[in-house]
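User: Could you go from structure to sequence for me? I need the amino acid at each position, not a summary. Structure tokens:
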């Protein structure tokens, strides 16, 4: 009985230690701003309030601290100087919305009910590197539909597909802030052509090449025989 009681006490002590370690790890992760990936989902984004300490809701946990610090500064200057506000959302996958555009518009309406006209939301879905920008009338008029498409597809989406989502978001925010500030758009990266150059010839191309070669050889042979004969005939006539 005494041994059983001691065993039960030890088990309880171990359980309390395990719970304490888990709680400490959870608190540490939260204090450091680390993403809790096990429970992360689109529903966490939909329930979230607009970020007040910065412009990012990095649910997927792909943005680096140094990058977000610089982007927060640029976005703060943009909001104060030009009146345009951009929030950025990353999410691992979509659970409720049909696509990234739908989620972006949901967050725009939820976070910016009063100043939606001058606000925008950039969304990156990590699972398929889908990107969208939703914005109010003034925001999109200043940004431009073509620029928005280029930023989502040729900058953020391009680098996300390359396995560099942090850099993609950084470049996207850089382009957006430049355009809305009235500066020159840095532009999209040089997209690599995925089409491979054909290194073989088709049958028709081979036949055509072979026919041309035969004609050339035939002409050379004709010259080789005919010219000496003409020269010989000329000598004979002189004699």
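Assistant: Here is the amino acid at each position, in order:
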């Amino acid at each position: 009985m005494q041994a059983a009681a001691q065993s039960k006490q030890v088990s309880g002590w171990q359980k309390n230690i395990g719970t304490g370690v888990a709680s400490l790890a959870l608190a540490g992760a939260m204090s450091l701003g680390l993403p809790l990936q096990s429970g992360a989902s689109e529903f966490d984004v939909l329930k979230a309030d607009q970020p007040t300490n910065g412009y990012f809701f990095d649910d997927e946990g792909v943005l680096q601290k140094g990058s977000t610090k610089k982007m927060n500064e640029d976005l703060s200057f943009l909001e104060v100087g030009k009146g345009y506000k951009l929030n950025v959302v990353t999410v691992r996958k979509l659970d409720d919305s049909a696509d990234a555009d739908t989620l972006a518009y949901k967050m725009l309406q939820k976070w910016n009910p009063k100043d939606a006209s001058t606000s925008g939301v950039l969304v990156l879905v990590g699972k398929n590197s889908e990107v969208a920008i939703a914005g109010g009338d003034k925001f999109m008029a200043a940004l431009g539909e073509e620029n928005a498409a280029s930023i989502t597809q040729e900058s953020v989406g391009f680098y996300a597909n390359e396995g560099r989502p942090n850099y993609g978001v950084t470049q996207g925010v850089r382009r957006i802030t430049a355009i809305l500030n009235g500066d020159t758009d840095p532009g999209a990266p040089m997209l690599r052509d995925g089409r491979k150059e054909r290194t073989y010839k088709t049958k028709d191309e081979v036949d055509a090449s072979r026919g041309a070669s035969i004609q050339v050889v035939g002409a050379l042979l004709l010259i080789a025989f005919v010219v000496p004969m003409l020269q010989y005939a000329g000598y004979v006539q002189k004699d």
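One structural detail worth keeping in mind: The first strand starts at residue 56 and ends at 58.
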